[in-house]
Design goal:
It is a single chain. This protein has 519 residues and is of the alpha/beta class. The protein folds into three domains: 7-196, Class I glutamine amidotransferase (GATase) domain (Rossmann fold); 205-392, HUPs (Rossmann fold, 3-Layer(aba) Sandwich), CATH 3.40.50; 411-506, GMP Synthetase, Chain A, domain 3. The protein is built from 14 helices and 19 strands. The strands form four sheets. It has an eight-stranded mixed beta sheet with strand order 2-1-3-4-10-9-8-6, sandwiched between helices. Strands 13-12-11-14-15 form a five-stranded parallel beta sheet, with helices on both faces. Strands 16, 17, 18 and 19 form a four-stranded mixed beta sheet that branches. β11 (225-228), α6 and β12 form a beta-alpha-beta unit. The two termini are 30 Å apart.
C-alpha cells in the first residue's frame, strides 16, 4: 500500500523460520519485508533498505545448486545480518571456509559472548551466557579475511562474527535469534535494527491504519468498491478500513456458498448490522457452489473452483448494481506465502481461494490492504479501528469453508455430517473454556468408513477427525493438548448425535510438517 517507512529486507533461503525473522523485526515497530534470495541487486536497492537479513536454509554452501547471491550485495554499503545459512554463505563468498561439523548442532547451546558491543550490547552480567537455538550441520572452519569471532559455543568456535571494517557492517550468527528458544533473541535483532541500521521504531498499527486509509482513498478516487465479507476478522478489518476511506461508496457482499458453519450466515448478518453502518448484501449461492464441487476430489481444484465462483458472484452483482471497479479482500501474508512460491526455494504449499485461486482475467481491480500483515497484526489493527472483541477474537475459518474439511467430493449429505460435527466441537471447546486458548478447533470428514457397533447392530460408517491447534500467526502451529475429558465429550456427542459417524480420531500433527487445514 506504499508505506513511507524505513524497512529491513529479509532474503529468504528456504528456512522454516524466515517468516519469524520478519515478525520479530515488526514487533520492534520496524517494517520488514521478505524477498526471494535471488532478487536482482538493482531491485533490492530500489527499496532503499536500511538493512538486509540473510535467512537460514536447508542447503549447504558447497552443494552444486546451493542458493546464493551476487557478491556485490555484500559491498553495497547496506548493513547485513547473516543467520545460519546466511552466515555460511557470507563466509563462502568472502573467502572463508565452511565444512561439515563433527557433531551436528541442533537444539539449545550455551552462548559465550566475547564482544558486548553492537549485536550483544546489554548482554553483560546475568544475560552474558544466554541459551541460543542451533540448527545446522555445517560450521565455520575459517572466517573470511577482515572478520573476527564475537561469540562461541562448545561445538562452534565461531557462533557469531563481525567485520573489523566498520564501513562494511556485516554481522553473522550461527544460531537463530528469531525463535523463542533463543534467550533475548529479540534484543539481538533490535540491536541490529536500531543501533547498526539506525532505524527508528515508527511502524505501528496506528500509522498503518492512517497510511492505508489514505492509500485506498488515493487509489480509488471517486470509484465504487465491493468488499468480500466472510464475517471473520480479516475481511471485517478490511471492510472497516475501506469504509473509512470511501464511506457509502463501499458495499459489502456476503456470499452464502453453502459451505458455511451452522448458523453462520445469520450470525454474520446480525453481528454486522449491530456494529457497523456499512451496506451489506447477502447472496445465496449455495446450490451453484455445491453443484460445481460434487465430483471434485483434488483440493487444489476445489480452491480454484471456489475462488472463480466467488468472482463470478461479485461480477454479477456489480453489473446489476451499477459497476463497482474495485474489489476489497482480506488477504493476509500467510495466504500469499502458502499460495505463491516466490521466496527462495520454498515450495507452493496450497492455493488459497483468494490468491492463487482467482481467475487471471477479472472485471475488478483488487485492493488487498492486509496483504503484508500476519493474523495477530490484523487483530491489533482491528482494535485500533474499534472492532468488538466478538469479531476480533473469532477463530479463523477458511474462505473455501467446509469444502476443504471434507476430503473428497462435496455433497449435501457430507456437508450435513461435517457441519453438525463441527458445531459440536465448537460448543464443547467453548464450554470447557478453551475457545480463546486455541488458534483453531474443528472437525474434518475423512473419506474412510470403519466397522462399529451401535445398539448390538454392526455399523459401517464415517470417520471424523478433530483438529485443534495453538499458534500465533498460522505460519507454524502445534497440536493443542486438550484434556482427555473434553476430547471424550466431543467424541461421545459426535457419535451419538451425528448420523453416519461411528468413529472419532484426534489429529496430533504440528505445522510443519502438516498444514492446519487438511486440504
Amino acid at each position: 500500500m506504499g508505506f513511507q517507512h524505513q524497512r529491513i529486507l529479509v532474503l529468504d533461503f528456504g528456512s522454516q523460520y524466515t517468516q519469524l525473522i520478519a515478525r520479530r523485526i515488526r514487533e520492534s515497530h520496524v517494517y520488514s519485508e521478505i524477498l526471494p534470495y535471488n532478487v536482482p541487486l538493482a531491485r533490492i536497492l530500489e527499496y532503499r533498505p536500511a538493512g538486509l537479513v540473510l535467512s537460514g536454509g536447508p542447503a549447504s554452501v558447497y552443494d552444486r545448486k546451493a542458493p546464493s547471491i551476487p557478491k556485490p550485495i555484500l559491498d553495497a554499503g547496506v548493513p547485513i545480518l547473516g543467520i545460519c545459512y546466511g552466515m555460511q554463505l557470507v563466509t563462502h563468498l568472502l573467502g572463508g571456509s565452511v565444512a561439515r561439523a563433527a557433531h551436528r548442532e541442533y537444539g539449545p547451546a550455551t552462548l559465550l559472548i566475547d564482544d558486548h558491543t553492537d549485536l550483544f550490547k546489554g548482554f553483560e552480567g546475568a544475560t552474558g551466557h544466554p541459551t541460543a537455538w542451533m540448527s545446522h550441520g555445517d560450521r565455520i572452519e575459517r572466517m573470511p579475511p577482515g572478520f573476527r569471532a564475537i561469540a562461541r559455543t562448545a561445538n562452534s568456535p565461531v557462533a557469531a562474527m563481525k567485520t573489523t571494517d566498520r564501513d562494511r557492517r556485516i554481522y553473522c550468527l550461527q544460531f537463530h535469534p528469531e525463535v523463542a528458544h533463543t534467550e533475548n533473541g529479540a534484543a539481538i535483532l533490535r540491536n541490529f535494527v536500531y543501533d547498526i541500521c539506525g532505524v527508528k521504531p515508527d511502524w505501528t498499527m496506528r500509522s498503518f491504519k492512517a497510511e492505508t486509509i489514505a492509500a485506498i482513498r488515493d487509489q480509488v478516487g471517486t470509484g465504487k468498491l465491493l468488499c468480500a465479507l466472510s464475517g471473520g476478522v480479516d475481511s471485517s478489518v478490511a471492510a472497516v478500513l475501506a469504509h473509512e476511506a470511501v464511506g457509502d461508496r463501499l458495499t459489502c457482499l456476503f456470499v452464502d456458498h453453502g459451505l458455511l458453519r451452522e448458523g453462520e450466515a445469520r450470525l454474520v448478518c446480525e453481528t454486522f448490522a449491530k456494529h457497523f453502518k456499512i451496506k451489506l448484501k447477502l447472496i445465496n449461492a449455495s446450490s451453484r457452489f455445491i453443484s460445481l464441487l460434487e465430483s471434485v476430489n483434488d483440493p487444489e481444484r476445489k480452491r480454484k473452483i471456489i475462488g472463480r465462483a466467488f468472482i463470478k458472484e461479485f461480477e454479477s452483482f456489480a453489473q446489476r448494481a451499477g459497476k463497482a471497479a474495485w474489489l476489497v479482500q482480506g488477504t493476509l501474508y500467510p495466504d500469499v506465502i502458502e499460495s505463491v512460491s516466490f521466496k527462495g526455494p520454498s515450495a507452493t504449499i496450497k492455493t488459497h481461494h483468494n490468491v492463487g485461486g482467482l481467475p487471471s482475467r477479472m472485471r475488478f481491480r483488487l485492493i488487498e490492504p492486509l496483504r503484508e500483515l500476519f493474523k495477530d497484526e490484523v487483530r491489533e489493527l482491528g482494535r485500533e479501528l474499534g472492532l468488538p472483541e466478538e469479531i476480533i477474537g473469532r477463530q479463523p475459518f477458511p474462505g473455501p469453508g467446509l469444502a476443504i474439511r471434507i476430503l473428497g467430493p462435496v455433497t449435501k449429505e457430507r456437508l450435513g455430517i461435517v457441519r453438525k460435527a463441527d458445531a459440536i466441537v465448537e460448543q464443547e471447546i467453548r464450554k470447557a473454556g478453551y475457545y480463546d486458548r486455541v488458534w483453531q478447533a474443528f472437525a474434518v470428514l475423512l473419506p474412510v468408513k470403519t466397522v462399529g457397533v451401535m445398539g448390538d447392530q454392526r455399523t459401517y460408517d464415517n470417520v471424523v477427525a478433530v483438529r485443534a491447534v495453538t499458534s500465533v500467526d498460522g505460519m507454524t502451529a502445534d497440536w493443542a493438548r486438550l484434556p482427555a475429558d473434553v476430547l471424550g465429550s466431543i467424541s461421545t456427542r459426535i457419535i451419538n448425535e451425528v448420523k453416519g459417524v461411528n468413529r472419532v480420531v484426534f489429529d496430533i500433527s504440528s505445522k510443519p510438517p502438516s498444514t492446519i487445514e487438511w486440504e
